Amino acid sequence: MTIRVRFAPSPTGMFHVGGARSALFNWAVARQGAGQFVLRIEDTDTARNKPEWVQGILSALSAIGINSSDPAFEGPYFQSANAGLHRDAAAQLFEAGRAYYCDCTREQVTERTGKPDAGYDGYCRERGLSYAPGRALRFRTPDDGETVVADRIRGATAFPNRAIEDFVIARGDGTPLFLLANVVDDVDEGITEVIRGEEHLSNTPKQQLLWEALGHTPPVWAHLPVIVNEQRKKLSKRRDKVALEDYLSEGYLPAAMVNYLMLLGWGPRDDGPEIRAFGELMAQFSIDDVTKASAFFDVAKLKAFNGEYIRALSIAEFIEVCGPWLRAPHAVWAKDAFDAKVFAAVAPLAQSRIAVLSEITSYVDFLFLDEPVLDEAAWSKAMKPGAAAMLRSAVTQLTEAEWNAESIRAAIEAAAAEQGLKLGKAQAPVRVAVTGRTIGLPLFESLEVLGRDRTLGRIEAATAKLG
């Protein structure tokens, strides 16, 4: 039997990193077993759906390597196109006696049970109501026995049928609810394995009952562990940065995101290095090895991963991926001030230091601005008593030096010796005077690229500012 998995997002917002993890796990299963990855857009929430979100889903999937041009990719299908099948399934369940119409209001149920949060009490089960506007269609849950959900991650869980209320499968206007539509779509698309987030686990016994009532064998279930933040709370778009697009636009490389997301709740069996291409991870991936425990989305670790991927690029590749950040609106310098040859000269220095591509502008802006962007905290830290004397000595020594990194270092060392300072202490005021910051590219190589005149001019301006 051909493996058919599906990823079924709703086009109602940015692409969640949890959704990206689910998509990658499904993609790995499909690719491993020469199966199919079905993309289904669940677009029945007409009030919140937007066409641009559909394109956003496709773009985000493509960014993490799930491409519609791949033979394993199928779709996108749209849930709204199956509205007729959803209604037919609802009618089938009603005609078979597996569902019934109900005209009860929540207030009436509360009045009968005396509990405002009580589940439905089955009042309309034997009333024999037919369809009429305002009457919901409820599934008739079996009175006895249990529904056993066999989950590849969580094992078998038994749900007593008596604990499952007669749940609504179609609204009073006849439109089917998510529970039914989801099952009908999976049946129609021949889905064999449903791999999705833990938040859907509570729906699973109801959906399994629907699969069986419609005369079909349920798929293999697998519910992935929830992703949590550093407070061990579920990632929330109201509290955390969760959109894949936000990470990519900040300068996280897609390959690094894929690598990191694949390790959220799963790890390779060979205990080898964590930094690996998707193909290597896919070869070892198994849903059976996914943990039940919550997966911590560690932004610091993701950033470290990204730094490793940046350093693995060739210089030409690094220069290319930095391109968007060297142009407006990211760049703070005038368009004609940027010099590609100057950037190429410092690119190897920057590549060894940045962890996210968006950091590149703060490392190189001093090269393309008339005056450096001054970090006031850095100025206060570096320009201690004696800084002016150190800067004057630096000007004297640098004026006579050969203009290369080795000679520049020797000149700064000589100036430091004149002031009775170690090189590390002597560098700080020079760096802030020239770059505006205390942290940046290697100082001597930076000054070589900046040039003698601009370097001396900035040091003299800082000396004058110190009085």
How does the SSE layout of this entry go?
Elements: E1 4-7, H1 17-32, E2 36-41, H2 51-63, E3 73-78, H3 83-95, E4 99-102, H4 106-113, E5 136-139, E6 146-151, E7 155-160, E8 168-170, H5 178-188, E9 193-197, H6 204-213, E10 220-224, E11 227-228, H7 244-250, H8 254-262, H9 278-284, E12 295-296, H10 299-311, H11 315-322, H12 340-351, H13 360-368, H14 376-382, H15 387-400, H16 405-418, H17 423-435, H18 443-450, H19 452-466
Parallel strand pairs: 1-2, 2-3, 9-10, 11-12
Antiparallel strand pairs: 4-5, 5-8, 6-7
Helix pairs in contact: 3-5, 5-6, 8-10, 12-13, 15-16, 15-19, 16-17, 16-18
Give a brief outline of the structure.
The protein has 467 residues and is α/β, with parallel strands linked by helices.
Core attributes:
11% strand, 467 residues, alpha/beta, 19 helices
Polypeptide structure, described:
It is a single chain. By secondary structure, this protein is an alpha/beta fold. The protein is 44% helix and 11% strand. The protein has 19 helices and 12 strands. The protein has a 3-stranded parallel sheet. Strands 4-5-8 form a 3-stranded antiparallel sheet. A two-stranded antiparallel sheet has the order 6-7. 33% of the residues are buried.
